[in-house]
């Protein structure tokens, strides 16, 4: 499977001098899903980043972001679901980092969509997060004036790690200036909660069927990095959110570092399974 990469990434490849690659920053991305009203598939929550942003500016992405120190230092975080040891294998991370990745996934989802994967007990979830006091808390979390651990503790809530499923693990190619070691999760939109256009880093948000998002990409109406497009292709094969979650439970997840290979006036995106991935010039 090969892709042409966005122009902004192509410029980074052209400017790379072959020196020491940047160290990837650990990050978490959450694919928030709901069934379509007509029950003929799923919709994913997508954001288009503000064009001026240094990372993924102008691109259509899933909610997500880098792991913060407070995410790692979250030993006292109220928690329900698989523990850090259980997440360690699927996320290819030691337990403390695995815990931080799950914490970052929940935090970023709340910051960028207003959806909180937490509840008063292990068996329920917050019914509504649209009240003004929730927005005040979300803004404080986004500004790093508040940690997720403090937010949940003060409100008597537990993080619902069981509402997340690991889906993929992508590491940015070596030519990129900003590199991320990103774990992708899938989660269903909790019953009663609604997404809100709250992400200051996004100029547009929408619930979109994966096939429709890919059609927009094909027509040149939106820009996205190949891992986002690949994930949407995978999601388009499933007829329901329950089907996606069941598929996630059976996935074998390995870290994938694509190659970016110049090819005339194009840049090709190669996966380890593509012919030429291991060749010096990227050719089969």
How would you characterize this protein structure?
It is a single chain. With 284 residues, this protein is of the alpha+beta class. A hairpin with an 8-residue loop joins strand 9 and strand 10 (180-188). The radius of gyration is 19 Å and the shape is globular. The strands form three sheets. Strands 2, 3, 4, 5, 9, 10 and 11 form a seven-stranded mixed sheet that branches. Strands 1-13-12 form a three-stranded antiparallel sheet, with helices on one face. The model has no long low-confidence stretch (mean pLDDT 89). The protein has helices at 7-15, 69-72, 84-91, 95-113, 132-142, 148-154, 210-218, 226-235, 241-249; strands at 2-4, 25-35, 42-49, 60-61, 64-66, 79-80, 118-119, 158-160, 164-171, 180-188, 202-208, 259-263, 266-270. It has a single domain, classed as Nucleoside Triphosphate Pyrophosphohydrolase.
Keywords:
alpha+beta; Nucleoside Triphosphate Pyrophosphohydrolase; seven-stranded mixed sheet; three-stranded antiparallel sheet; 9 helices; globular
């Amino acid at each position: 499977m090969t892709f042409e990469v966005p122009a902004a990434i192509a410029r980074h490849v052209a400017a790379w001098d072959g020196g020491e690659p940047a160290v990837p920053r650990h990050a978490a991305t959450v694919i928030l899903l709901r069934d379509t009203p007509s029950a003929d598939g799923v919709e994913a929550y997508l954001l288009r980043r503000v064009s001026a942003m240094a990372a993924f500016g102008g691109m259509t992405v899933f909610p997500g972001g880098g792991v913060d120190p407070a995410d790692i230092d979250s030993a006292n975080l109220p928690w329900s679901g698989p523990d850090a040891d259980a997440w360690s294998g699927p996320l290819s991370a030691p337990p403390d980092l695995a815990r931080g990745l799950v914490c970052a996934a929940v935090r970023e989802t709340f910051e960028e969509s207003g959806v909180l994967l937490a509840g008063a007990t292990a068996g329920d979830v917050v019914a509504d997060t649209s009240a003004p006091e929730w927005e005040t808390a979300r803004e404080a979390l986004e500004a790093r004036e508040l940690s997720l651990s403090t937010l949940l503790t003060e409100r008597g809530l537990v993080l619902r790690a069981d509402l997340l499923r690991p889906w993929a693990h992508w590491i940015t190619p070596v030519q990129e200036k900003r590199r991320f070691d990103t774990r992708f999760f899938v989660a269903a939109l909790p019953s009663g909660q609604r997404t809100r256009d709250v992400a200051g880093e996004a100029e547009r948000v929408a619930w979109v069927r994966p096939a429709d998002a890919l059609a927009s990409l094909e027509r040149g109406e939106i820009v996205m990095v190949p891992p986002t497009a690949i994930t949407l292709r995978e999601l388009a094969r499933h007829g329901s959110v329950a089907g996606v979650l069941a598929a996630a439970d059976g996935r074998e997840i390995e870290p994938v570092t694509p190659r970016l290979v110049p090819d005339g006036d194009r840049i090709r995106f190669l996966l380890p399974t593509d012919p030429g991935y291991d060749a010096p010039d990227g050719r089969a």
